[in-house]
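Case study B.
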Amino acid sequence: MLEAQNVSVRFGGLRVLHDVSLTLPKERLTGLIGPNGAGKTTLFDCITGFVTCDSGTVRVNGRPVPKVSPHRAATAGIARTFQTPRMFDQLTTLENLVVAGSRPSAVRALAMAFRSRAHAAELRELIGLARETAEFMGLASVLDNRSDALSGGQRKLLEIGRALMRKPRVLLLDEPMAGVNPALARTIAAKMHAVVAGGVAVGVIEHNMEFVMKHCDYVHVLAQGRELVHGTPEVIRRDPQVLEAYLGGTS
Amino acid sequence: MTTYLPAIATIALMYGALGLSLNIQVGRTGIINFGHVAFFGVGAYATALLSIGGMSLALSIPLATALGGLAALPLGWIAARLTSHYLAIVTIGFAEALRVLLQNLEVTGGPGGLTGVPRPFGDLAPDLFAGIWLGVAAALLAVTYVMSSIVTRGLLGLNLSSVREDEPAAAMLGRNVAAFKTMVLVWGSALAALTGACYAHWVGFVSAEQFDPRVTFYIWAGIIIGGASHAGAWLGAAAIAAVFELTRFLSDFGITAFTDTQFASLRWIAIGLILIITMKFRPEGLLPMRSRHHLRDDADASVTQPAPATKGVPVSDA
Amino acid sequence: MVVPVLQALINGVTDGMLIGLTALGISLVYAVQRFPNVSQGGLVTAGAYAAYAFGPLVGTWYLAIGAGVLSAFVLGMLGYLIVIRPFRTAPLMTLLIVTIGLEFVLDYTVSFFWGNSLRAYDFGVTGEFSVGGLYVSRVAAYTSLVALATMAVVATVVRRTRIGREMRALSDDKPLARVARISENRTLMLAWGAAGALAAVAGICYGVKSQLSPLMGWNLLLPSFAAAILGGLGSFGGAILGGVVVGVGMELFTLAMPAVFKPIFAFLVLTLLLLVRPQGLLGKAVRV
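Model:
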């Protein structure tokens, strides 16, 4: 479970997030919606340490997550994807997955480099896990293709797969459906449900309302850096403020 | 001139070793280090001072190597805090500051440098001396090759590649990017210091000019030409050094169109042109390497079998 | 105690003006192209030697200076057209390496033709002004005036002329500048020309104050980068201010340390600054 409480962020004089709270419960798919510029991605950036929040706390299963340090946020159990997938372009699909699953300590990696037997065993295990993940994400046929040769949709799948290799407690997905065809969108939605069922707290930023209403268990709406409303999709659907925010009437 | 050939080969192999140790930083991890020669100098001066003070080479060379690695720690700390092009400027400044120190401190012999650095095999016949040192240089290259490969293959190599390819993504996968960069800076700098130590004992003296910050770009030109593979890096750096050393003897062949100073200038102009022209053919920068190497050695055989040419059978989106 | 410090301040300001001029060239290119131009040092050297070469040909020193500045202006534009333009869309790192290559080509072309020995202009400016135990050499005073005048010219061009407006537009918002049909190519070319001319003024002043050597530009790079970053890369007033601060700092540093260690001071300023305040004194926030 992830709890972000009273998060505020300023860029210079501009207040990007104002006292926003977000809870992502375990085994639930939580949607985060709002018009462009509402601060959704900034909230993810803040939770994952890419942006310094001026105030507020982030906890995973009750333990505070260190600020301004993506790798420590990751070590605390948070994984995320980016709006535009960030691949390790010159690595293959398999290598992308293997590196994601490997233990992140630099010192340990150096020590392992001198222990070829232990290293080989660890690598075998990771390759096995990577193959399973690739199978699950539907990437088995492109295992040995360099990731810069993958299609846009495959890159999205690989990025999610890479996050899963971390066995995260919390998974944040930034617009996984953007630019994706309907068939693939259904695949991604199915994967998300499977991940949620596996005990992960999943948060998703999405513009596709149909998806949000159909699949999310709970929805938070942001507008202009503030939380507008939150509730089940039924509640959100009927809330007049949400419609107003999307039509740009709030200012 | 044939008497110089072993010496030229020796210096070429030493530059090859410097190419390898720079390449694990630049080509494999994406750290833009313009100050590599500084660590070459640290190794040379350290072993020179220690051995002139009476320490056995068996101790002074390893100590010099370690010191070279330690000297890179501040750069690692800075690398964690700056984006790559600002780090690049800091590394040149670091090399220049170090040169100024070495050239002007009393303990490092001032502008004259340090003479009388012990030269093993120095009392042998010149041909034998040259032959043995050629062997030493080859061994040095081999050691550097092995030590470079250790950090760039397998899981560690994959991790370094991930840092090079996309730092935020690597960080989001739990990797402490700064720790990996620091590690590679220390590793590569220690190897450069080892080369510097061997160099000092070969030539028998050290002076700050030998470690002018610009010498780094000799090595850069070499690895840019060679590409980011280990073989390319050492061959590129060695080839540049060999060709350039050979041009020092052109006047022996009756090619006297230019003075020695002018030849020196032409060599640097050539380095400049190589940097410019090679970059034109490497639009993506220094990353022409294939990545398969990582998983070839240890992984099960099926991993390296060619993948089906068709992409995205189960997921056929455009 | 007071006199040496004041004297150091004076020397620092007059040196700092020239560092500032070099930094101004770096900042100018940074403003329109967003990358730190290492070849500015080579332009300094080339400009200074161009004036030296024209000296005997044109007879009078002011014509020689004019010819030197003009040829550096042309050289800057040629450098852009031949070397930089093919890399205009390349990654920052590529541009950085390419400008280092250009720096070498410029420096060593000079050393190819003129050798490595030190040379001096023969302008016949000697003597010094003295006030109450403080000295300013006439050369230092004149070069400072020239530097100030040059800065005034740059400020006027940037503020008042069409090309200046286009440069600022390109600096503030590239896409918008393109929409406004500002020729990026022409503006960049002129910015490089201006950087060359500024480099020549700095190089000539430097040569008049001390001596000419093929290394003069390279040696000015470290303090100039410190100055440009101190002032905030892309900020023109900041570059000058940064130059003066670095110049004064280096002189005060020499009160405690031997003068040969000046570059170390420049390095420390540069590094600390990048770590603590990368946007500089006057600059807007930049990510480093």
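The two ends of chain C are 40 Å apart (CA to CA). The remaining cases will be described in the next quarterly update.
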